[in-house]
Amino acid sequence: MRSDGAHPRAPRRAPSGRESTKHARGEIAAGLTAAALWPAVQWETLPWKSSYPPDLLSRSARAQLQEPYQAAITPGIADLEVRLPRATSSAAEEASNLIREFDTEVGGELAPFAAILMRTESASSSEIENLTSGAKQVALAELGEDARANATQIVGNVEAMRAAISLSAELSAESILAMHRALVERFEPDIAGRWRREQVWIGGGRISPHNAAFVPPRADRVPGAIDDLVAFAHRDDIPALSHAAIAHAQFETIHPFPDGNGRTGRALIHAMIRNRALTRNVTVPVSAGLLTDTRSYFAALTAYRDGDVAPIVDAMSGAANASIANGRTLVGDLRAARETWAAKVKARSDSAVWPLMDLVLRQPVVNTALVQAQLGVNHSNAMKAIGRLVEVGALAEVGGRRRSILWQASEVLSALDAFAARAGRRQLDSQA
User: Fold this and answer.
1) Residues 216, 226: contact at Cβ < 8 Å?
2) Less packed terminus of the chain by CB within 10 Å, N or C?
């Protein structure tokens, strides 16, 4: 079956082991960097058993289904030395410093930017998989209101990110399964939190892997490959951002799930950089940076599989830089909105209106039940606080499901949609 996940678009047949070896030797002979010495995937030839009705296929298609196919064999990386070009290492270190600065700057504020940035990262990661939704739909889905399917799946990605952060202290096969379970449980409970038991492939046709862009390892190789990846993830001798980038590329190469590999693999990035204390407070929206040029991102994953580890580290560094610039603009927009509201509100320091301002920054569509639960106030005080924000133009009443009353913070929704527009793809890939 075809699978989602970050990958190159153009279908190609998997090279044989001999072709891979020849390619690697050619690169070394050309005097490329030591990064090109990273082991390329090898290939094994496997029989294909088709369950597709043959009478629905052309003669040539039926003949192709009788042919074997090639699936990748991922190299073990647990103990490999990581050697990167000087420019790649320098760029990763500069990006890491930016991440630390942003994490300290934004995480130290009382305003709930951690929750906002986690949602924007989840939305961007989902958009790489062609799951797009406006900020209002996502807010409605989080509130339990009727929302479009894409928005509900993005909320699942938020849950996966939360799981990744909460489990970052104990990176394991079980924690990866938990991230995946949080991601797809609502829509695909039969596969949630389980390694795949069948062959998947990326690109090409729907009925067989013969013309796929990439064919990950056969299913029975997945648990061992994941154990090797986890061992690699536990190392502390590799700079944190490079470490996370390489682990992400290895995860996407293993492709351990029938669906949700790309989003789970990007959640793994955040688990690893939190584990290594590169971040302590917020989720830096690196997927928003990757989203600006998905073709280069997919090409970097292809290069990794061909034995060059540098491009995926370069892609992650560039994504971090772009996402932090975008994130700073978002935070500035939200700060400005809150300051405008605060300047207009006249209330005692202990009024519920002040914490309500922070609530609507992270949840820009609210109802009274949410306000009561989050602020610990009764219905009357919740309505008073909401009313004050309506008076200053921070909230506006909108209709909800079953004629329920909702209020939305239009400035916040506009700021979130503007963030998404700035992160929008410059090169689209319909196969993502």
Assistant:
1) no
2) N
Residues sharing a CB contact under 8 Å with residue 432, sequence separation 6 or more, in sequence order: 4, 6, 7, 128, 129, 130, 262, 294, 298
Residue 401: pLDDT band (50, 70, 90) is low
| Superfamily (CATH H level) for 17-328 | Fido-like domain (1.10.3290.10)
Q: What is the dihedral of CA 310, 316, 319, 320, to 10 degrees?
A: -130
* 21 burial type by CB count under 10 A (0-12 exposed, 13-18 middle, 19+ buried): middle
Q: How far is CA 43 from CA 202, 226, 261, 321, 380, in A?
A: 15, 18, 21, 36, 67
For the chain, what are the domain ranges? Answer: 17-328
Express each pLDDT in 27-86 by its tens digit.
434 434 444 479 999 999 999 988 777 777 788 888 888 899 999 999 999 999 999 999
Cα dist. 133→119, 158, 389, 421 in Å?
12, 13, 26, 11
pLDDT in tens, 267-323: 999 999 999 999 998 888 888 888 888 899 999 999 999 999 999 999 999 999 999
